[in-house]
């Protein structure tokens, strides 16, 4: 009997099927790894050993009875703390939700449970998913397993670090402007943002409703497809979810893994590269494009002229929606309640003000103020209204580009992981991390980040982004799997094999 | 009691110098089985905070799903008000902080309402006034706050407040009129007639319980004055908490008189919310609107646009009740009411009640007699609308049936109404409990008549001499003896028999 935590979810599923291991063994091995390295990594805000082991026992019993719930039944998973989990605290990385235990499961969490995956715990994140480094968590920063002095990306740094540090085989993340893909890029893992509406948002604590999407955080493209098929599909509780069957994703991965991309047109987006991108990141990107060409793909350069306005557009739409979403945190019904000092008989309004002052961090306050301003009477047309128009132009850019290419590619993030503390006081520098990932959220198209290698100058991972038209998620899996298999062949093994051993490390 | 230092100009004088403009916003709480955006029961009442779920509590992560039946009701209301139905419309968030609002925004509609540009023809003292409808849109209700302690029951000065979220998320339709100008002295009556006839329409559509006293139908009254003949619109006030037809009329009248007082003194009207006080018949200042009104509306990103298919709209048009104007003409003919009788019935807001009473078996004249006579008097005495009196058309029909059977007379019937107001049960239960039935025991009646004759020999002699009119005195004595529970006509017969 073995429970090798370095094996992929697909391999672990095979081990479970063959009887080489049990879910309890696997879950315990993950919990042991968390115990050994999470002091240094701090990927988890909550570890639910008891719940995970109970679910693992149930999985083993099901399997013994010959009633396997899904392809991943028994494979443990970590969940970003922005997803509601019944009976398990959900903080969104914020003080204001300290102590809140949801009375219900997010649809994706319910699906994961129904598929038999034990939930190891909840992972760290920038407060309410606002950030690109996980430094904006109210509960401490998460460290990049490649270099503990560096950020793991954000907002879903906890999920990416947990997977990169082998604390969990797979995890759930959410992506509003790159929060799955950018952490994937800087931790050498795979992250997928599905088509908007492809995965239910019910129970995802909204940052920006029109941009948010739940997706897989994994070490391989196949694992992402397996998890995507568990969580995807129509949900009547989410009115924006698409009432159509998912494309065959695992099938697309198997097709791509053959390494043949004959007839596939790949568009390199002119505006997503060049100035502002780290040399080592660009070098790995170019090499990846060459590999895809060798695999038979036809590579063309495409222009998306409005992408240069994507960041400005995003930073109007997101704060506007967020300012309204976060209004409910007012100490009246749940979460933190702070009584104002020196006020004898505080009114509800006094308590709301004191709680929001104490409960929200600076980045959250900054965006609430921005959003409130952008929606104000007299400014709406100039800001929010204008941003929606530019959003339409960006979607039109995508539509034209997808006439010339089946998928679009770019580096996922402009740089590798930067040192903790480097950009935390410079919001603009922080926001630039999401330059290449934001356009996909603005127009709802799916995207994947696949590791492309290590940058020469710092030896840290870089990511390769693949985007496809809405509903064509299978294309990102096919091309992603092809690139992954070609690179694995070149590297002679997984990129993460080159990451430092964390046992005994301390941050 | 809330008092006022407002200077009020006599109503007639207001009209000498000013033209009033009215605007009415009526909220109708729909009677759908479930709430606007979740599956919780929308039923009135229930133990506090039992009809709730993550969505109507606004818990983090929860999402709304539109209630199809509520959209259907909105479209039917819109069609009945002669509105256009949007081919495409959206919900919007109205952002403001208040403890009884779970998300601190209300999911409503803003510049894209589902129904717009309609009208309703309203009968005011026999004259038809066309009230133009600007829009009817869908939104969700808030929770209900109870402020405990303090003197006013309002949030200021309260020791603490309790919030019941059972009401949060109940579907509302807000119906907004265009400014109603040119009504002059009839402005208060037009306001009342509009709300009253709108209620009849809502009841006929069957989309709401439409009880003003229970808050199923809530009216906000906008009023402004402009210098007479100027053709302009003045600054308006919005009076809230007006929850009877009678109060709608009184609130318009009061605000006209108050505005004139301010304007006459050279002041200007503050654009603000006013609170109506039922007990004293005055309004007081609420919050000032000018600085608080930035609701930062934007389209609700958790919902997709609503695009009602035209075939569905036409199908719903087929389910509309009869046009109110045609219906009034038909009923008048069926009931044989004179123009005056019909006008009084409509004016008293009793049309629906009379119709239902007749449907429950009463004759048209009897139904009219009770609602416009005894019951109108009692409603007026207690300052409530007929519909909110606590007497149902079925009760009235039953009481009239008992009168027709000879089991009750009008005097006893009034005592049955007393019992109904005191909550003593159904008319039959009250008759039994109070022992109100007319005594039909001939023996007892005969003995009482004999006793009266014996006690009043001189009156008896006059009757024997053929002065039949004198019988009244003996009837009175018998009725007194029988505590009113006798059929006066039978008593008269017995007296004349015995003395002939």
Describe the structure.
The complex is a heterodimer of chains A (507) and B (500). Chain A is of the alpha/beta class and 507 residues long. Chain A has one domain (9-307, 392-451, 465-498): Amidase signature (AS) domain (Amidase signature (AS) enzymes, Alpha-Beta Complex), CATH 3.90.1300. Chain A is built from 16 helices and 11 strands. Chain A has helices at 9-18, 23-41, 49-64, 107-114, 157-164, 181-187, 221-231, 249-257, 279-294, 310-325, 348-359, 362-375, 381-404, 427-431, 438-443, 473-491, and strands at residues 44-47, 77-80, 119-123, 170-174, 190-193, 214-218, 265-269, 298-302, 407-411, 447-454, 461-467. Chain A has an 11-stranded mixed β-sheet with strand order 1-3-2-4-6-5-10-11-9-7-8, sandwiched between helices. In chain A, α9 links the parallel β7 and β8. In chain A, α8 (249-257) runs parallel beside α16 (473-491). The two termini of chain A are 33 Å apart. Chain B is an alpha+beta fold. Chain B has 3 domains: 11-315, no CATH class; 322-434, no CATH class; 442-499, Arc Repressor Mutant, subunit A (Orthogonal Bundle), CATH 1.10.10. Chain B is 39% helix and 19% strand. Chain B contains 17 helices and 15 strands. In chain B, a hairpin with a 2-residue loop joins β5 and β6 (127-140). In chain B, α9 packs parallel to α10 and α16 packs across α17 (488-499). The longest helix of chain B has 20 residues, at 245-264. The radius of gyration of chain B is 28 Å and the shape is elongated. Chain A binds chain B through residues 83-84, 90, 92, 97, 100, 102-104, 106, 201-206, 208-210, 236-240, 320-321, 323-324, 327-330, 332-334, 347-349, 352, 372, 375-377, 380, 384, and chain B through 54, 57-66, 93, 95, 97, 99, 102-105, 155, 161, 163, 293-294, 296-298, 301-304.
């Amino acid at each position: 009997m073995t429970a090798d935590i370095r094996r992929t979810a697909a391999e672990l599923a095979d081990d479970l099927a063959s009887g080489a291991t049990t879910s309890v063994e696997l879950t315990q091995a993950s919990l042991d790894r968390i115990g050994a390295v999470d002091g240094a990594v701090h990927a988890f805000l909550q570890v639910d050993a008891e719940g995970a082991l109970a679910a693992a026992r149930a999985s083993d019993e099901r399997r013994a009875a010959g009633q396997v719930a899904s392809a991943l039944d028994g494979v443990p998973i970590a969940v970003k703390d922005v997803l509601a989990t019944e009976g398990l605290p959900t903080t969104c990385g914020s003080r204001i939700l300290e102590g809140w235990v949801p009375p219900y499961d997010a649809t994706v969490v319910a699906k994961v449970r129904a598929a038999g995956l034990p939930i190891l715990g909840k992972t760290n994140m920038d407060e309410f998913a606002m950030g690109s480094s996980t430094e904006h968590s109210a509960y401490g920063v998460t460290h990049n397993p490649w270099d503990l002095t560096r950020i793991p990306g954000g907002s879903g740094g906890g999920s990416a670090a947990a997977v990169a540090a082998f604390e969990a085989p797979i995890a759930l993340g959410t992506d509003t402007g790159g929060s799955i893909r950018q952490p994937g890029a800087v931790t050498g893992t795979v992250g997928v943002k599905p088509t908007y509406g492809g995965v239910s948002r019910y129970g995802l604590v909204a940052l920006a409703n029109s941009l948010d999407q739940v997706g897989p955080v994994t070490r391989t493209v196949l694992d992402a497809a397996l998890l995507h098929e568990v969580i995807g599909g129509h949900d009547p509780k989410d009115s924006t979810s698409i009432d159509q069957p998912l494309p065959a994703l695992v099938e697309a991965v198997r097709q791509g893994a053959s390494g043949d991309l004959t007839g596939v047109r790949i568009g390199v987006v002119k505006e997503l590269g060049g100035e502002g991108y780290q040399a080592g990141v660009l070098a790995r990107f170019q090499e990846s494009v060459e590999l895809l060409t060798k695999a038979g793909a036809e590579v063309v350069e495409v222009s998306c002229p409005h992408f240069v306005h994507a960041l400005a557009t995003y930073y109007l739409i997101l704060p506007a929606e967020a300012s309204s979403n976060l209004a409910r945190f007012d100490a009246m019904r749940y979460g933190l309640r702070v009584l104002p000092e020196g006020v004898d008989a505080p009114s509800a309004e006094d308590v709301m003000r004191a709680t929001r002052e104490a409960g929200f961090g600076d980045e959250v306050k900054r965006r609430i103020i921005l959003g409130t301003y952008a929606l104000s009477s007299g400014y709406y047309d100039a800001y929010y209204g204008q941003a929606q128009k530019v959003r339409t132009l960006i979607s039109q850019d995508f539509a034209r580009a997808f006439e010339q290419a089946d998928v679009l590619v770019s580096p996922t993030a402009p740089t590798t992981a930067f040192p903790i503390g480097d950009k935390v006081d410079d919001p603009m520098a922080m926001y630039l991390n999401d330059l290449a990932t934001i356009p996909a959220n603005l127009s709802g198209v799916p995207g994947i980040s696949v590791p492309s290698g290590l940058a020469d100058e710092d030896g840290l991972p870089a990511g390769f982004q693949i985007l496809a038209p809405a509903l064509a998620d299978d294309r990102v899996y096919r091309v992603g799997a092809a690139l992954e298999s070609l690179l694995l062949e070149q590297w002679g093994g997984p990129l993460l094999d080159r990451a430092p051993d964390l046992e005994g490390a301390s941050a | 009691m809330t008092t006022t230092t407002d200077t009020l100009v006599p109503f007639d004088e207001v009209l000498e110098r000013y033209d009033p403009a009215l605007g009415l916003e009526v909220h109708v709480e729909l009677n759908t089985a479930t709430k606007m955006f979740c599956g919780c029961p929308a039923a009135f009442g229930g133990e506090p905070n039992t009809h709730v779920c993550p969505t109507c509590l606004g818990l983090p992560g929860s999402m709304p799903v539109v209630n199809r039946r509520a959209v259907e009701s909105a479209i039917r209301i819109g069609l009945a008000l002669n509105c256009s139905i949007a081919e495409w419309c959206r919900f919007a968030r109205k952002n403001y902080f208040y403890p009884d609002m779970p998300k601190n925004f209300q999911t409503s509609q803003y510049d894209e309402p589902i129904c717009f540009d309609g009208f309703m023809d309203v009968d005011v003292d026999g004259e038809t006034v066309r009230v133009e409808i600007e829009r009817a849109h869908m939104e969700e209700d808030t929770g209900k706050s109870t402020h405990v302690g303090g003197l006013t029951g309002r949030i200021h000065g309260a020791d603490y407040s309790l919030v019941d979220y059972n009401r949060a998320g109940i579907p509302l339709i807000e119906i907004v009129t265009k400014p109603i100008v040119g009504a002059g002295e009839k402005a208060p009556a037009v306001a009342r007639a509009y709300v009253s006839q709108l209620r009849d329409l809502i009841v006929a559509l069957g989309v709401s319980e439409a009880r003003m006293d229970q808050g199923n139908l809530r009216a906000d009254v906008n009023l402004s004055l402009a210098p007479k003949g100027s053709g302009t619109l003045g600054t308006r006030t919005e009076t809230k908490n007006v929850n009877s037809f009678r109060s709608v009329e009184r609130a318009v009248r009061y605000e006209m008189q108050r505005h004139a007082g301010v304007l006459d003194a050279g002041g200007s009207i503050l654009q603000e919310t006013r609170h109506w006080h039922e007990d004293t018949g005055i309004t007081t200042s609420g919050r000032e609107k000018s600085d608080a009104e930035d609701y930062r509306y934007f389209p609700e990103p958790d919902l997709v646009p609503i695009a009602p298919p035209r075939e569905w709209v036409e199908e719903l048009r087929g389910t509309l009740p009869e046009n109110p104007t045609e219906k009034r003409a038909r009923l008048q003919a069926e009931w044989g009411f004179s123009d005056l009788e019909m006008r009084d019935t409509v004016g008293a807001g009793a049309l629906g009640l009379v119709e239902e009473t007749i449907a429950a078996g009463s004759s048209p004249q009897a139904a009219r007699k009770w609602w416009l006579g005894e019951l109108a008097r009692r409603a007026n005495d207690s300052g409530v609308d007929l519909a909110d009196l606590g007497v149902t058309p079925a009760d009235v029909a039953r009481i009239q049936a008992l009168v027709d059977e000879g089991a009750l007379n009008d005097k006893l019937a009034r005592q049955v109404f007393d019992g109904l107001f005191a909550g003593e049960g159904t008319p039959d239960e009250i008759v039994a409990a109070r022992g109100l039935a007319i005594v039909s025991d001939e023996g007892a009646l005969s003995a009482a008549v004999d006793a009266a004759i014996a006690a009043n020999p001189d009156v008896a002699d006059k009757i024997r001499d053929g002065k039949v009119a004198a019988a009244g005195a003996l009837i009175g004595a018998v009725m007194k003896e029988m505590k009113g529970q006798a059929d006066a006509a039978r008593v008269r017969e017995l007296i004349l028999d015995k003395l002939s």
